[in-house]
Recover the amino acids of this structure.
């Protein structure tokens, strides 16, 4: 920034040298200040870009997190809906299967004038207090009576699915579905109480 040599250096006085040095220092200080200013501006620009990049990344990550949560919530909701549909289909299938089994098991009501077969005239006392009467064959099983009730409840839209039968006289629970009406002493007529086990 400042250079002096030869005879001029030998003849210059202290004040002139001080002036030259001060001027050179001032000139250098301006350049240094300008360089420092540019460096600070570059640092500010770099810092600003870093902050903007960080904010962008944070915003992007937050958006991605929300999107993942939304997708996960949608997946869980679809899974729950699928389970509910499957359960409803299983219940409906089980109900249809139960009704079909009851239809397959139940035969036509025997003719009361047919004396060639042992008959049982059964009066069924429902939980509502209603009475239903039907004739069965003596060799029909308790399960046949249950099949009749299953179909009766379906046709009358009565919401009874889990029930138990018991004879009035002799009083006992009819739990063995394979026993015949005749072997249970329900011929030629009897009263059977129907109990709703879910009520």
């Amino acid at each position: 920034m400042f250079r002096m040599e030869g005879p001029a250096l030998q003849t210059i006085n202290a004040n002139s040298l001080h002036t030259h040095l001060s001027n050179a220092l001032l000139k250098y200080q301006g350049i240094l200040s300008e360089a420092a200013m540019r460096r600070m501006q570059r640092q500010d620009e770099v810092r600003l870009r870093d902050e903007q990049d960080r904010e962008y990344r944070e915003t992007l990550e937050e958006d991605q997190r929300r999107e993942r949560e939304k997708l996960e919530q949608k997946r869980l909701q679809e899974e729950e809906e699928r389970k509910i549909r499957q359960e409803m289909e299983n219940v409906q299938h089980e109900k249809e299967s139960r009704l079909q089994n009851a239809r397959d098991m139940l035969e036509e009501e025997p003719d009361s004038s047919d004396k060639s077969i042992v008959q049982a005239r059964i009066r069924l006392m429902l939980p509502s207090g209603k009475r239903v009467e039907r004739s069965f064959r003596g060799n029909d099983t308790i399960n046949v009576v249950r099949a009749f009730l299953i179909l009766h409840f379906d046709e009358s839209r009565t919401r009874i699915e889990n029930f138990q039968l018991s004879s009035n006289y002799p009083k006992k629970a009819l739990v063995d579905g394979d026993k015949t009406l005749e072997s249970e002493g329900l011929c030629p007529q009897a009263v059977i109480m129907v109990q709703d086990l879910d009520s």
Residues 14-105 form the longest helix (92 residues). The first strand starts at residue 119 and ends at 125. The mean pLDDT is 90. The chain has three helices and five strands.
